[in-house]
């Protein structure tokens, strides 16, 4: 079994790695990614704060994984599809979905918040790996329709143990579906470490068993991610089938605010990964390259602050969704038994108001 | 001293500990049940006490977990597996319905599968989607599965002990909104046999039938009704399958009126089955048709709206009011 060689274009200290396979993206492009990374980081911090303030029920943060989030959104073209999980709110926002809409579900509303058809962003999936066969289906349909649409599907390291992960990869390979699978290997599935999910040389290595090209990429290096993902997207669009990508990254926060990570991992490990932070690395690189100065940084921080403020305002209202809507979309048409139940609730609510 | 105040999570933890101590073949596994102790801490400290062989984390795959349990049970173990949340048991549906439930029958009893599938179950905790399903009907509808739902911490202890000793597979539904409520638990109390309901409150006027998380709601309704001069009894099923028809029917025959309360959506539900049975077997004792108070037939609503969905004491009392009192 040949071990995959990690792709990295920028070292943790910001210097160029000098990879022989992929070229470093142009500084202008990298500066755009840096803007997005700062925005993503700020979004994560703001969302976590909103949980503490009781504005969100829960938030699975992608703190530390922003490079994956940004790259996943950046490599897609107009019309391409993204299939995110609960941890991929930042990717959805970077794909152009309104940040408040992305967070509506977690704020306690009953629906996914945004229009998946308008944005070509599927609803964020919570049941692990279950979205992956859907991604293959969308991709296969696009091929049947003669479109060159590419689908990028996200999942975590833990999710690679689910049957749906394997079924999706095999279907995609057999049908040569234009899908890019991006596994964010952040080393944990809640408390369970990677070693309990797989003893393969890498998660990416699993691609070979399904007959698809695969790559192992530094998941905190947005340059490497966009280079390798970009190539996979081009290949898929050109009819050359799916790719499996593993991003080597780390979940810096607990699984969610409800989780206590001190029960299963050492602070030392977290500190070690902080040295490989995706923002710190790109910032050092851009500053050394002379494309990022103090003034530019201030502007970037300010614009990230605007996104955070927008999120705060959007989620600050004590709005209760309309209970009547609970019955409105269960079926395409009116369902008689639901109508009776909706009337019962409406009558109760009227009585509540009058009492 | 065997009586202490325990949360339901602690009562379940104690049951697992006592069962693992009593029987070496009892093993516990699932997602995050090891060092973390389960997301609800039900398996807290078990790996530490009994070792990694007897309480362990698996790869993240519910179908694999259920399948592994089946194989281990075929080879001498008594697995107690955890599905992290109700809706995350669905990837294991094939293993549970096609194999766990049917193996004994397919082998004319030669292969018995004493597996317990623990399911943190139902809502009321402000959980986001997929974290609050009431999935009992799927299991109750599957011949071969025993389905148990404790309502008190004492029963959580006793019934889990009984489930682990049971010769057939048991789906053990733990009302997650009670995990952290504290109640007196006496572990020396004889374990209630599976299949036996209990009358939680005697009442002359009407009988409320409930199980799991709906029992305290029914009791609260009965309490309220008493202040309005109506005397309601409450039967706690404890086991959904087998259903203790005798206890339920005896109560309903005495009162002549019944309301079945369950959090699950009502269509094709366990509540429907109970109502139908009461209708068939007690027809001549009934003063009014049996009514059901259940969740609506919609996907479980989000935190901001779940209070509209869950059966409330008020809704139960409205149903009781509709039991044709004028005509008697
Ligand atoms: C089918 C299923 N089983 C269990 C869960 C509960 N759960 C939610 S997230 C999680 C861990 C997932 O780990 P991973 O795939 O590595 O993604 P990460 O959370 O690290 O991004 C678990 C077990 C779930 N959501 N779906
Ligand atoms: Mg993970």
From TrEMBL, chain A:
Q: What's the top EC group for this one?
A: oxidoreductase
User: What EC number(s) has UniProt assigned to this enzyme?
Assistant: 1.2.4.4
Check the record and name the CDD domains matching this protein.
TPP_E1_PDC_ADC_BCADC (cd02000)
Ranges for domain Dehydrogenase E1 component: 41-306
Which keywords are on file for this protein?
Oxidoreductase, Thiamine pyrophosphate
> What is the catalytic activity of this protein?
N(6)-[(R)-lipoyl]-L-lysyl-[protein] + 3-methyl-2-oxobutanoate + H(+) = N(6)-[(R)-S(8)-2-methylpropanoyldihydrolipoyl]-L-lysyl-[protein] + CO2
The organism's superkingdom is given as Bacteria
Q: What is its cofactor?
A: thiamine diphosphate
GO MF terms here are: branched-chain 2-oxo acid dehydrogenase activity; magnesium ion binding
Give an example GO biological process: branched-chain amino acid catabolic process
Function of this protein? Answer: The branched-chain alpha-keto dehydrogenase complex catalyzes the overall conversion of alpha-keto acids to acyl-CoA and CO(2). It contains multiple copies of three enzymatic components: branched-chain alpha-keto acid decarboxylase (E1), lipoamide acyltransferase (E2) and lipoamide dehydrogenase (E3).
Family per similarity comment: Belongs to the BCKDHA family.
> What PANTHER family does this protein map onto?
2-OXOISOVALERATE DEHYDROGENASE SUBUNIT ALPHA, MITOCHONDRIAL
What is this protein called in UniProt?
A: 2-oxoisovalerate dehydrogenase subunit alpha
TrEMBL record, chain B:
Q: Which Pfam families match?
A: Transket_pyr, Transketolase_C
The answer to whether the entry has keyword Oxidoreductase is yes
Query: What's in the keyword line of the UniProt record?
Result: Oxidoreductase, Thiamine pyrophosphate
Q: Where is the Transketolase-like pyrimidine-binding domain?
A: 6-181
The UniProt entry, under CDD domains, shows: TPP_PYR_E1-PDHc-beta_like
What are the recorded GO MF terms, alphabetically? magnesium ion binding; oxidoreductase activity
Q: Which InterPro entries does the UniProt entry name for this protein?
A: THDP-binding, Transketo_C/PFOR_II, Transketolase-like_Pyr-bd, Transketolase_C
- The superkingdom listed in its UniProt entry is Bacteria
Tell me the cofactors it needs: thiamine diphosphate
| Alphabetized PANTHER family for the sequence | PYRUVATE DEHYDROGENASE E1 COMPONENT BETA SUBUNIT (PTHR43257), PYRUVATE DEHYDROGENASE E1 COMPONENT SUBUNIT BETA (PTHR43257:SF2)
Give the protein's recorded name: Alpha-ketoacid dehydrogenase subunit beta
């Amino acid at each position: 079994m040949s071990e995959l060689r990690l792709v990295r274009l920028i070292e943790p200290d910001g210097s160029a790695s000098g990879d022989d396979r992929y070229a470093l993206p142009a500084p202008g492009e990298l500066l755009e990614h840096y803007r997005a990374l700062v925005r993503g980081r700020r979004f994560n911090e703001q969302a976590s704060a909103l949980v503490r303030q009781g504005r969100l029920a829960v938030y699975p943060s992608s703190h530390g994984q922003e490079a994956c989030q940004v790259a996943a959104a950046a490599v897609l073209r107009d019309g391409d599809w993204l299939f995110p999980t609960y941890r991929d709110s930042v990717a959805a926002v970077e794909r152009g979905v309104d940040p408040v809409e992305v967070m509506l579900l977690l704020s306690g509303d009953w629906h996914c918040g945004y229009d998946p058809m308008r944005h070509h962003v599927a609803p964020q999936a919570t049941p692990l790996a279950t979205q992956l066969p859907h991604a293959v289906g969308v991709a296969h349909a696009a091929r049947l329709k003669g479109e060159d649409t590419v689908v990028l599907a996200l999942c975590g390291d833990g999710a690679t143990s689910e049957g749906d992960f394997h079924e999706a990869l095999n279907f995609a390979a057999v049908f040569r579906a234009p899908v890019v699978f991006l596994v964010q290997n952040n080393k944990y599935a809640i408390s369970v470490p990677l070693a309990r999910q797989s003893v393969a040389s890498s998660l990416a290595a699993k691609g070979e068993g399904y007959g698809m090209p695969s790559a192992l990429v530094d998941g905190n290096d947005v340059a490497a991610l966009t280079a390798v993902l970009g190539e996979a997207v081009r290949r898929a669009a050109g009819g050359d089938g799916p790719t499996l990508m593993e991003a080597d990254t780390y979940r810096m926060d607990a699984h969610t605010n409800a989780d206590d990570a001190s029960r299963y991992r050492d602070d030392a490990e977290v500190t070690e990964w902080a040295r490989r932070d995706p923002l710190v690395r790109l910032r050092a690189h851009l500053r050394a390259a002379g494309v990022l100065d103090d003034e530019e940084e201030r502007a970037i921080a300010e614009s990230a602050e605007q996104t955070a403020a927008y999120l705060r305002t959007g989620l600050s209202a004590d709005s209760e969704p309309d209970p009547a809507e609970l019955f409105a979309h269960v079926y395409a048409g009116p369902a008689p038994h639901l109508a009776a139940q909706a009337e019962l609730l409406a009558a109760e609510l009227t009585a509540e108001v009058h009492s | 001293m065997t009586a202490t105040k325990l949360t339901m999570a602690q009562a379940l933890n104690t049951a697992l500990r006592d069962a693992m101590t009593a029987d070496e073949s009892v093993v516990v596994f699932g997602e995050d049940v090891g060092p973390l102790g389960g997301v609800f801490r039900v398996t807290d400290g078990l790996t530490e006490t009994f070792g990694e062989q007897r309480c362990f984390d698996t790869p993240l795959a519910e179908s694999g977990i259920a399948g592994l349990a089946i194989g281990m049970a075929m080879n001498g173990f008594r697995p107690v597996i955890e599905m992290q949340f109700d809706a995350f048991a669905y990837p294991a549906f094939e293993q549970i319905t096609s194999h766990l439930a049917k193996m004994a029958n397919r082998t004319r009893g030669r292969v018995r599968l004493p597996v317990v599938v623990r399911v943190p179950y139902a809502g009321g905790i402000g959980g986001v989607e997929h974290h609050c399903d009431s999935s009992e009907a799927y299991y109750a509808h599957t011949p071969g599965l025993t389905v148990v739902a404790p309502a008190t911490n004492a029963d959580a202890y006793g019934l889990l002990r009984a489930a682990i000793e049971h010769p057939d597979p048991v789906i053990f539904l733990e009302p997650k909104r009670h995990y952290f409520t504290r109640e007196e638990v006496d572990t020396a109390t004889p374990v209630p046999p599976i299949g036996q309901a209990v009358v939680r409150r005697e009442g002359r006027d009407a009988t409320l039938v409930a199980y799991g998380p709906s029992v305290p709601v029914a009791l609260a309704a009965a309490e309220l009704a008493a202040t309005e001069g109506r005397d309601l009894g409450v039967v706690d099923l404890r086991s959904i399958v087998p259903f203790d028809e005798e206890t339920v029917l005896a109560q309903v025959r005495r009162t002549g009126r019944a309301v079945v309360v369950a959090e699950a959506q009502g269509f094709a539900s366990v509540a429907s089955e109970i109502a139908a049975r009461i209708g068939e077997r007690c027809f001549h004792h009934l003063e009014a048709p049996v009514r059901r108070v259940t969740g609506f037939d919609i996907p479980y609503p989000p935190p901001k709206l779940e209070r509209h969905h869950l059966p409330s004491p008020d809704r139960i009392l409205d149903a009781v009011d509709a039991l044709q009192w004028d005509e008697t």
